[in-house]
Amino acid sequence: MVSIDVSGVASDPVPIAVIGPTATGKSDLALDLAERLDGEIVNIDAMQQYRGMDIGTAKLPVEDRRGIAHHQIDVLEVTETATVARYQEAARADVTDILNRGRVPVVVGGSMMYIQSLLDDWKFPATDPAVRAEYEAQLESDGPLRMHQRLAEVDAAAAETILPTDGRRIVRALEVVRLTGQPFAASQPQIGEPRWGTTIIALDRDTAELDDRIARRTALMFETGLVDEVTALIDRGLREGVTAGRAIGYAQVLAALDGEYDLDKAQELTFIGTRRYVRRQRSWFRRDPRVHWLDAGSADLAGQALALVLDR
Q1: For residues 271 and 248, what is the distance between their CA atoms, to the nearest angstrom?
Q2: In sequence order, what are the residues at sequence separation of 6 or more whose Cβ sits closer than 8 angstroms to the Cβ of residue 305?
């Protein structure tokens, strides 16, 4: 193992972000860094904010957190809507507090817009409940594909960047265009110096290896109680929530419980959905020139990451 002197790092702490595609091993690296640098973890996975959504989000059990404080985990009920704006405000407060206590914030996760909201200057346009409700009603009656076509008519660039199946983002884009009279992209953040001078480290693996890890992790989720977890969350309002019930894995199990297909198909679709999401994450993160990429399968990964931190 490479010997690295980390003395003095905590005297002038700077955050570290460990990001990248799902199932690359981000949590283990984040814990290693937090241990070595006297740090605390700040979650940046949107669905790990939900209490009770543990198996399907691969949330680390408390006993596996090495006694390290974790923030922005288990802060929402499944009936609450997870928003980038709420996360931005809460997570920025957490990072600032950790820094003020002389410790190192280690931000870890793969939710793309959440990462950008935390590290970039992103000011969110106001919302109008009446306009939002109008578009949500249209989404319910016409479906996301029809709404995506409407978005393409008023903002072709936004339609190119938003999936035709992502009804929530389609509605938000239409709302922003209507309220501001500007393209949706005008409200998006511009990449610059990351907030707090954060060192951004991304992990990736060979595609075939990562696909295998996703398949094994998905199978393990179903073997260790994902269906029971979803069933218990239904009683807590999972179906009524706007965002929680749409999470990969949870949506597929809900559909299976509704008789749309069997659980084997739900597992297959969860794997396919996760793999598709990984491709999107890769594409998103690769566009950011500030990111330092590491091979998650390489030797002494923590040592490589520490070298990047100390070289800033």
Answers
A1: 9
A2: 16, 18, 29, 32, 33, 201, 294
274 Cβ neighbours under 8 A, 6+ residues apart = 22, 23, 214, 218, 248, 249
Residue 143, H or E segment = none
d(CA 184, CA 296) in angstroms, rounded, equals 35
Question: What are 186's two structure tokens?
Answer: 């005008």
R_g over Cα of the chain: 20
Pairing of strands 39-43, 70-71: parallel
Whether residue 1 has pLDDT greater than 60: no
Q: Domains in the chain, please, with CATH?
A: 9-122+190-310 (3.40.50.300), 129-187 (1.10.20.140)
Confirm if 116 and 198 have CB atoms less than 8 A apart: no
Nearest to 169 by CA among 155, 239, 301: 155
- The full length of the chain comes to 312
User: Residue 264, exposed/middle/buried by CB under 10 A (0-12, 13-18, 19+)?
Assistant: exposed
Distance in angstroms (rounded) separating the CA atoms of residues 151 and 228: 38
Please give the share of the chain, as a percent, with pLDDT higher than 70: 96
184 CB-near residues (< 8 Å, 6+ apart): 155, 157, 158, 173, 176, 177
Q: For 256-300, what is each residue's pLDDT tens digit?
A: 999 999 999 999 999 999 999 999 999 999 999 999 999 999 999
Q: At what angle do helices 263-286 and 250-257 cross, to 10 degrees?
A: 160
Give the separation between CA 185 and CA 136, rounded to whole angstroms.
21
